Amino acid sequence: LETRAYLSLQKARLLLERCNWTDAKESFTSARYIYQRLRDAVADEHKPIYSNQLESIDTGLSFCEYNAGDIAVGKSGIDTTHLADKIDKLVLESNKPVEEETITWIGRTVPIKNEKIRTFFKRLETIQAEIAAATEERSKIALIEDALEESRQAQYILKEDQSEKTTGGMSVIMFLLGYVTFLKLGQSVQKNVSLLCSTLETESTNQNNVGLLSLFLSSAQRIKPHLILRYIDNVLQLLDDILELPVLQISSAEDVIKEYKMRKLALKTIRCFQLARGYSFQNEWKSALALYVRSSKLLKESLEATSGYKLEHSWLIALQKSLKDEQFYAFTQTLVEQSSPTILEEKDSGQPIESELDKFVDCSGLAVGKKSLVKLPPDMLPVPCKPFFFDIASNHVTLPSGVEQKVKSQEQSGIGGYFKGWLWGSSK
After folding, report:
1. What φ, ψ does residue 376 adopt, rounded to 5°?
2. C-alpha distances in Å from residue 194, one per residue of 131, 149, 224, 242
3. How is residue 393 annotated by DSSP?
4. pLDDT reported for residue 73
5. Alpha-carbon distance 206 to 222, whole Å?
């Protein structure tokens, strides 16, 4: 029918250009009848398309009737009864009740008119089912990344449609945008939790890994605290972002706000416990004990808040068992530090042991070559100088006649001959 209407419209425009007013009017009237009935048959979101076509047809039809001599718009001798049956059948089919897709959240149900948003929610249900069926954390992380990408695209679509005017509170588009943002933040929380579980599987020596419950096992003490605290801080920030969503504040969703505040309190308890473990790892027992005491106070509040939530409550029950043991151990280590005598350790002077025999010296460095018994090489000692004039034996040696004259001439010219003549006189 729509194809026939479009064909009649184009034929009418061609006849209008040829100034064939009567035939153009009949074609305009046929197209107008079909478009008008189709507009009544389609949904509200598609009606503006047919209304625009009807406005352009009415303009051309009025022009043809003016030139043809008719007065009233819409009068035509064409018989449209052959189209009535088909159009009436289409109208009856379109008027059948169709289940409209809706979303119910925080006590409000809104329809989903955008086809892309409908596809997004169907795709999201499929991904969530795959995540629930996945057994490895790496597979879960990959699926969560797909869900995050779908959520980003849905956010972009809804922001483009946000031009809808708000009547009597929050508009449908704003509500859907807030809901998609809420889902996206929840997926980010789920991603960080999966990354934390993956880190625990990689770093922990426990073969029977039980997810986040392995955080409270003794084997988790070997894991560096900053690896765990990084993900916990990310989740806490995401929970703050969820609680600050305008859609939750405007809709007064007390139950959702209460649930996420409970999760935030439970996560703060776990974070404080992990910080205490970090100080224990560095043997700073006083700071660790203070944080363990703080964790005990937070744990009491968290157990009361999570009484109706099975998963979070099981985490805190496991935490309670480990917290008691580690708190008592930190307390005993603190007492040991306070009762042990304080030994003033002198700094190593770097001198060998033979020069510090009057002091107590830790000789453990001898085995590794950091300490020496004696100094090698020894220090240089001063010795007396040779006399300035010491070699006079050559003056009393009898030499052959030929050599004697030559030696005497050399002695007279040297410093020995000078002192000889000065001290003992010269021999002629």
Report:
1. -125, 130
2. 11, 17, 18, 19
3. G
4. 42
5. 11
